[in-house]
Amino acid sequence: MDNMVDQHHLILQLNPTMIKERYRELLQVMLQSNYQMGAAFNVVGKCVALSGYWVSAKLYSGKYLEVDNFVVDEAYHNAGIGKLLSGWMQRETLRLKCEPSYWMLILRTALRSASISGRVFISRATIFLKA
Length: 131
Known about the structure:
By secondary structure, this protein is an alpha+beta fold. The chain contains four helices and seven strands; from the N terminus they run αααβββαββββ. The protein has helices at residues 2-5, 8-14, 20-31, 81-95, and strands spanning 36-41, 47-58, 62-72, 104-106, 112-113, 120-121, 126-129.
């Protein structure tokens, strides 16, 4: 869990009000529900992207991987890091034997505009990836 807490700087890019202590508390609860995290690191070992996920199953969809809190460091936007991380997550759905089908994207909350460079960021999203 300490490795996850160490990436608080990226979580702040999604949720600027998330204090580190609260992040740790929530992770403790989430880890009890089999929460996991994938990450991408640069050549000097700094985490530049991450995404949490759960593996679960539903009667209507079968086994699936639910992506949560997908974030790429603002300094690495447009560098292909998000594509690499999402590719890894797609391969993870295969490794975990999620059922073949389609990908679903469900946005839990509306997009929020960020004043940083006039870009628009997804503040929170849930992406269901099925192999």
